[in-house]
Structure formats: structure tokens, C-alpha cells
Specification:
The structure is a homodimer of 292-residue chains.
Chain A: E1 2-3, H1 6-26, E2 33-39, H2 43-59, E3 62-68, H3 74-86, E4 92-95, H4 105-111, H5 123-130, H6 140-151, E5 160-164, H7 171-179, E6 188-192, H8 199-203, E7 208-211, E8 229-232, E9 236-239, E10 247-250, H9 255-258, E11 264-265, H10 272-291
Parallel strand pairs in A: 1-11, 2-3, 2-4, 5-6, 5-7, 7-8, 8-11
Antiparallel strand pairs in A: 9-10
Chain lengths: 292, 292
């Protein structure tokens, strides 16, 4: 069994980006600039945005963090996005989700220019991903998982991948990416979800299992074939008085049980999580290159 | 075994649309108007466009057929589409594919306003379909198959659907629609394709099989579980001197062998084919209602 070390792979990707950015800067080219919008004071959202800004700073991207009160009017938010769309210095725009209930996430996402939509949530970018178009921005978690497979040379062609979860931001896009005619890709893909009846039976056929349903320790050892590759997308915060932060992050895989049976497995934390940041940075770099 | 009679179901849908259109007309509301563009003189394309125009006429839609020479400049085509986008009298625009090699299909498809893209090929509409949004135009073949399942009350929730083929216009969108949380939908879906290794083994698990790869008589009886629902999307033209047209249409399913084993099966012709026309008409009606 080998650990698919997302932290290490993400660092390699970020290191390469850092060199690429320095080269751009040295040759007088524009350096990527990510604008992140945070609304309100949700703890998890603040942590996520902070780690994105930190990654920007580490690798030489410019970053702007715009923090609105949770009472901000939807119109005010939309105006700010319009301003960022038109701002030539900004390459990528992200709005940290979820948003307060009085703001339409759909309206906000669709107001971001598809050319700056580095989170890949705009319908146009989702469509381009389905079509396998190069210009698509692919959302950070599925993109990060594809990068993790690619960098660690995990074979995918002809493999049977079973994805548990059909969310718009992980399961669904990943099912498309893994089955597209690309590299990595070309998997036979089964999408399972809450209405799936014989989940265990299907999982036992999988060469690659992606657990992306958000239920801690859901995937048990009796659902995994010997030698499978297991990708754990879960990041549930479970209260833990023993931890400084008062919680610990638990994945969707019962790691201790499942790991010995796998060929490769991602840990939580340190697996998919860091890869999402790396993917976002790659998207922002791409947006910068394509716009300039 | 029961035949899933697409011809009959399509007629029911068209009859209902005819009544709805007549009601709109009687109350002074706008009647749907479909503009179809045909480039060149490909026999199959001419037949398809003609049957779409015929359906419009039958149910009281207005139709405009614009026929360009196969030498038409891409720019001329794009200008015509722009004109149709701006024409308030036009609700739906379709460009019959394929186009001659000197014209970019991508550019042409993306030039159609997503609000008039009744073929559902624009990336924005594909994205909205993935997101399960009501406003999405879903392309005619997968939409037609979903309507066929719905009108014939074929249970889908929790069923295992195996789709052979991952094309942008059939396999891929259908895999998404069948696994979305909707009705019909909520299937566990496996997408198979040319790189799938154990196709037979996977097909034998299927409650619903969709053959959409374009290989005549590909699906054999030993690949089908007793009682499965089989949907045949194939429409290959095979030369046949005994037919007036010089060819016959052959599906992807070895019908004579497979049919006795099924609970339901679509014939070719008269199965999915007529449903695509019905779906296109429904899309055009929807475009008209939403724009007015």
C-alpha cells in the first residue's frame, strides 16, 4: 500500500508554478492576480480563503481579498464582481461559498466572467469540461484529483472507477473527467448516490473508488477490492476537545481498516485537500496566460 | 416483452403541443418559430431537416428553412445566426450538423444565443443540464429518450443503467440525466466506451441498457439480462438494393435476438428517432414560452 500524498504532490505543482511565475516576471510578463471574495464570518470559509491567499503569496501571485459583512446586499456583491470582471489587472475571481441565504449563489456564480471563473462553477465552464475543451476551467476538487492521479502515474485507461456521490462540485465533474477520452481518463465510470441499491456489490468491482458523499468513515473494508486505488474527498469537521482547534477533519473512508487493502490511498488530511489549492493556482495561472 | 413505441409516444407529445399552440394562437399569444439552417446537400442532413420542418408545420409552429451552398463562408453563416439571434420573431435556431470542413462547428454552435439554442449544444446549456437547471435546453436525442421513459412510465429510480457510448450528443448527456436527482432519473449509471474492458460483464448487470455507439447490431443477446429495458440509439444506413431509397436503417441492437429477453425495447426505426423530433419541438415551444 502506498499513500497518495496530496501535500507532497501539491507542493511539487506549486513549486513549478513559482518558477513559471518568476520567469514571467523576469521577462516583463503579467503575474497572475487572484481576487477572492469572502462574505460573512464562517470559520471554515475563512480558513479556506486564507489558505488560498497564502498559496498565492507563496508562489508569487498577486492576491486581493475582499471581505464583505454577512448583511451585504446581493446587488453590492454583483457590482463588485462586475468591477473585477472589467479590471484588467485581475485574472481570476472566486467567491467563497456558501453565501448567506439572502444572496443567490446562482446569480453570483453566473455574474463572474467565464474567462476569470477559476473555480469553474459557471455553466459555460461546466459545459466546456463536458465537451473536453482545453479552455475549460475545471473546478478545483475534481481538477486536483485528476492532477494527483496524473502526477503519481496512476493508470486509469480501461479501469473501472466507481464514484460515490453526484455533487455538482465533485462527483459529477469527476465522473465526466475520468471517463473522457483523455489522459488521465478513459475509465469505465459508475456514478453511485443515495438512491443506489447494491452499492457494496458495485464498489467491489472498482479499480478506483472515489468517496465523495460527506459521510465520515462511510467506506468500509468490505466494500473495497484488494489492490484498489481509493480517493477520499471527505472533509467533515468532527468535534475533538483534544485538538487545539476543537475539531478534527475526518474523511469518507475508514482509513485504518481500508488502507492495508489498497494499492494507493489518499489520507485525510493531506490528500485531496492540498490538491484543490494547487488546482486553483493552476487555473489562475492559466487564466493569466490566456488573457495576456 | 413490450415495444417502446417511439412513433406513438412522439405523436402523443406532438398532439399535445398542437393543442397548446392552438391555445396560444387563440389567446393572441406568440406561436413558436423555428429557424433551421442547412449547409450543403448531404442526403441524411436534408432528410433530417425536412422532417423537423414537417413536424413544425403539422403542429402549427412557424418554420424557416435557410439553405446555404456548401461553399458558404463561415462569416456569412455567423452573420445569419447573429441576425436570427436578434430577430424577435424567431424562438429557436438550429444548424444541422455536420458542417463542411472549412466551417468551425464550435464557432457556429457558440454563436447561437443560448436562449434560442433548442438543440442544446451550446456549452452554457450543457452546463445547465449538468446542474439540473430547469432553463437548460437538453439536446434532442437524450431529451427524447428521457421523454420516452417518462411517458411509458418506465421505473428508473435505483435502477442500474449502462450506457454504451460517451458521445457529446447522446451518451454523455444521457448518463448525466439518468443519474441526476429527477424523475425520470436517479439511476446508478455506468458509462462504457471503446476503452472498456469487461463490457459484457457490466452489461449483464444492467436494468436499463442504452446502445449509442453507432455499430450496427452490436448488442447481442448474451450481453443482456432477462427483463432488461433496451434503448437503441443506432441509426446506421446500410445499403439495401431491395429498398426504394437504396438503404435501410439499422440499430445498435441485434433486435431479433435481444427483443424476446427484454421487458421493453425500442425498435429501429420507430423508437428513439421520432422522439428526437418530439423533443426538439418541445424545446422550441419552451423557448417561445420563456421568451414571451
Amino acid at each position: 500500500m502506498q499513500i497518495l500524498n496530496g501535500k507532497k504532490t501539491a507542493k511539487e505543482i506549486l513549486d513549478t508554478l513559482e518558477i513559471d511565475v518568476a520567469q514571467r516576471a523576469a521577462t516583463g510578463k503579467k503575474v497572475p492576480h487572484l481576487a477572492a471574495i469572502l462574505v460573512g464570518n464562517d470559520g471554515a470559509s475563512e480558513t479556506y480563503v486564507a489558505s488560498k491567499v497564502k498559496a498565492c503569496n507563496q508562489i508569487g501571485f498577486i492576491s486581493t481579498l475582499i471581505h464583505f459583512d454577512d448583511k451585504v446586499a446581493e446587488q453590492r456583491l454583483l457590482e463588485k464582481i462586475e468591477e473585477l470582471n472589467e479590471d484588467m489587472s485581475v485574472d481570476g475571481i472566486l467567491v467563497q461559498l456558501p453565501l448567506p441565504a439572502h444572496i443567490s449563489e446562482k446569480k453570483v456564480i453566473e455574474s463572474i466572467s467565464p474567462l476569470k471563473d477559476v473555480d469553474g462553477f459557471h455553466p459555460e465552464n461546466i459545459g466546456r469540461m463536458v465537451l473536453g475543451e482545453e479552455e475549460a476551467f475545471i473546478s478545483a476538487t475534481p481538477h486536483g484529483i485528476m492532477l494527483l492521479l496524473e502526477h503519481n502515474k496512476i493508470p486509469t485507461k480501461g479501469k473501472h472507477a466507481v464514484i460515490i456521490g453526484r455533487s455538482h462540485i465533485v462527483g459529477r465533474p469527476l465522473s465526466i473527467l475520468l471517463s473522457n477520452n483523455s489522459k488521465p481518463g478513459n475509465c469505465t465510470v459508475t456514478v453511485c448516490h443515495s438512491k443506489t441499491i447494491n452499492l457494496k456489490e458495485i464498489c467491489l468491482q472498482a479499480d478506483i473508488i472515489v468517496a465523495a458523499l460527506g459521510v465520515p468513515k462511510f467506506l468500509k473494508v468490505d466494500m473495497v477490492k484488494e489492490g484498489a486505488v481509493v480517493i477520499d474527498v471527505g472533509i467533515t469537521r468532527v468535534p475533538d476537545a483534544g485538538k487545539k482547534k476543537g475539531y478534527r477533519i475526518v474523511g469518507d473512508v475508514d482509513f485504518d481498516e481500508v488502507a492495508p487493502k489498497c494499492s494507493y490511498i489518499t489520507p485525510v488530511p493531506g490528500g485531496v485537500g492540498p490538491m484543490t489549492i494547487a488546482a486553483l493556482m493552476k487555473n489562475t495561472f492559466k487564466a493569466c496566460v490566456e488573457r495576456n
